[in-house]
Amino acid sequence: MADQKASTSIEAVESGLAAQGYIASRQIATAVYLSQQIEKPILVEGPAGVGKTELAKAIAAWRGMKMIRLQCYEGLDEAKALYEWKYAKQLLYTQILKDKLGEVLGGAQTLHAALDQLHDFGDVFFSKEFVEPRPLLQALEQPGGCVLLIDEIDKSDAEFESLLLEILSDFQVTIPELGTVSAITPPTVILTSNSERDLGDALKRRCLHLHIGFPEQRLEERIVESRVPGISQALRRQMVGFIHEIRSLDLKKLPSVSETIDWARVLVLLQASELDSEIVKDTLNVLLKYEADIEAATPQVTTFIAKAARSNVFG
Amino acid sequence: MRENLHRFFRAARGAGVHVSPAESIDAMRAVAQVGLSDRAILRDALLLTLAKSQDEKLALGDCFDLFFSQPEPRQDQPEADNDDTSPDADQSPPSGAPGDAGEGQPSQGLGPLAQMLLSQDRNAIAAAIASASGAASLSDIRYSTQRGIFSSRILDAMGLQRLRDDLDELTATNPALAERLRAALDGLREAVRDTVSQGLALYAREEAENLRNEILRNAPLARIERRQVAEMRALIRQIARRLRERYSKPRKRQRRGHLDVRRTLRRNAAWGGIPFLTAWKRKHRDRPKIVALCDVSGSVAQVSDFFLLLIHSLHEVVDDVRSFAFSSHLIEVSEILESKSPEEAMSEIMSKVGFGSSDYGSSLVDFEKEFMSTLTPRTTVIVLGDARSNNLDPRADILRRISERSKRLVWLNPEGRLAWGFGDSEMPRYATFCSVVRQCATAQQLERAVSDIVATYQ
């Protein structure tokens, strides 16, 4: 615990995350602070690419803890998420211990006595030794605590949500053969969702609900600044302004923060010093991922550049 | 502060945010952590713990701003205030003279409320209003008709009676001061009225909305007022959501059918045919395919509008919907409904086929000629209309063929059963070929009808 920085206030969270290259808005910092204080998981919703997964990584890096990630998909079940018995090992051990078993049971006169003796150490094969911990169980077993990232929970089946409820509210799981395993140190749990389907109320009730939208212009500039240090301030302003204009269009997929960062990198690589319609049109495919979107945006490029430049003068 | 938070939770419920006791405990704990000094942080903390979706966050944010826009009584002030409203009111005449001498001549011998008004101490007045509205339990207000009674309760709690006596006395002794006091009293009444209105906006929303929804659910769709259309659309969306939740999750257990003998034998060949492992047939379940024929002539148009809105918002439950609208002739409207907003879509449909006098016969002919092939044995055909064909040939034979080709034929009629068969209504002739005929005039009946249709596929 000693190496974990004690975060006493929301500002500390904000600057701590910033040190890891994650520029958090006030609301995000409050959520992280509260989740630590009242030990609740955070459910993060928002469009793709706004840094939901990054948030978990940044928290883990900042607090010097291990991050355990569980990627959800359709058909994910208990055996892959929680624990599984090591069947092969169990079989192998019974084979190796066959003689030993014979010895133990040798003394028994009747079948009944043999059964009794077998009962005495029958549980050997269903002990901790033979449990293969999957991410959820691993997270509970970390002595120093960890950040548990349950990614894209909306992709999993509705039944899987119910499986999570026990872990999320009490930080424990029940394995029928072993009993209840409680967390040594309650992990920090982050769930992310793209709102592909509505999550159950029971799950939502157990979490702090954080919605991360597209950031404000200033915030986005700071994000680009921290992620792509090589870009000049003027260009940074211009490109973020341009992206904000693009987001006002009615597109299939709006460019989000990750696209902004990619684009900034591309512009640095191309050694652009300022936006002009030529270079924007050439690199528009970094921002927009659908042909129809690119077609819709292309005629507007020049106006948007002009607008972005104008807002710079006042901004 | 706990008291205030509880009132805020009630206000939040009124704003449509579901705040369960567990969530309110979480919010309490969160507030205990972040403190009350920074309003922005307090707002964030409440939004994080109470609101569970983006819509709820917006609603709760508005509610927060409204709630804290009034000067909330702080813990120390109301107490101090209570002290001087009740005991002082009786004591002030005898003890007033020495204490009030410094304040000047006029306020001598007056009650505390009168003194407060004359000294124009705004903070004290605001705090007194707040504590009096607590005493009058303003948070119990439910209906706008209760505004008067709550205003007078608050004024009474503030010591209006005593003020009246003071006024009577002053008019005799000091008319100018009485005039000032009277003006101040009017101001006070206004402030109290504002407080009550705000309380109504905060606390009465839930009840009022429930009542309104209840009325709306049972109101005849065809005669709905223009200003209620938007509310009705919202209600229909709610219904759609409920139906989606109920029917979109496949229930696994129900799908197991009879024992599959062949597969069981094959699977157990290794054990000499002794059935260790059983194999079960699975019941095949179709997702509904719906073909909807909607009358959009005059009287039925509004009902058709809501019906189409409902059917087309059931994507998760219904596999395939094709909608057709008709009055004198029939066109397909599925695409218009999918691509446009409900309002635009309906006006476009109306401009294409609406406003004619309905001719069921020729519309059915149109359907048979062009779209008969869309019907499969899995399709449910829903006809929505009043079956009033203006004495033209009803062509019930086509309806028979439609019914033969499809799984079910459901007729929804916005008219009451009593009217069927009277005048130009062809309902009895059509009814013979329908699997179900039911009345469908209100949102509630609409919900039941659609729910039954979807349930037959489960």
CATH secondary-structure class of the largest domain in chain B: Alpha Beta
Q: Unreliable stretches of chain A, pLDDT < 50, 5 or more residues?
A: 1-7
SSE string of chain B, helices as H and strands as E: HHHHHHHHHHHHEHEEHEEHHHEHEHEH
Main-sheet strand order of chain B equals: 5-4-3-6-7-8
Second-tier CATH architecture of the largest domain in chain B = 3-Layer(aba) Sandwich
Question: Could you tell me how far the N terminus lies from the C terminus of chain A, measured between alpha carbons in angstroms?
Answer: 44 Å
Instruction: Give the count of structural domains of chain B.
Output: 4
How would you concisely characterize the structure shown here?
Chain A is of the alpha/beta class. Helix content of chain A is 52%, strand content 13%. In chain A, the strands form 3 sheets. In chain A, strands 2-5-8-1-9 form a 5-stranded parallel β-sheet, with helices on both faces. Chain A has a two-stranded antiparallel ribbon with strand order 3-4.
Question: What does this entry look like structurally?
Answer:
The complex is a heterodimer of chains A (315) and B (458). With 315 residues, chain A is α/β, with parallel strands linked by helices. Chain A folds into three domains: 10-72 and 143-211, P-loop containing nucleotide triphosphate hydrolases (Rossmann fold, 3-Layer(aba) Sandwich), CATH 3.40.50; 83-131, no CATH class; 217-314. Chain A contains 16 helices and nine strands. Chain A has helices at residues 10-19, 26-37, 52-62, 78-81, 87-96, 98-106, 111-122, 135-141, 158-170, 201-205, 217-227, 233-247, 257-269, 277-287, 291-297, 301-314; strands at residues 42-45, 66-71, 83-85, 131-133, 146-151, 172-175, 179-182, 188-193, 208-211. The longest helix of chain A has 15 residues, at 233-247. The relative contact order of chain A is 0.13. Chain B is of the alpha/beta class and 458 residues long. Chain B folds into four domains: 2-67; 76-208; 253-284, no CATH class; 289-455, Rossmann fold. Chain B has helices at residues 2-14, 21-34, 39-50, 54-67, 76-100, 112-119, 122-135, 147-158, 160-173, 175-203, 205-217, 229-247, 261-267, 301-312, 334-339, 342-353, 360-371, 396-405, 427-431, 443-455; strands at residues 256-259, 280-282, 289-295, 320-326, 330-332, 379-384, 408-413, 436-439. Chain B has a six-stranded mixed beta sheet. The two termini of chain B are 51 Å apart. Mean pLDDT of chain B is 79; it is low at 72-105. The interface between A and B is medium-sized, with 19 and 22 residues.
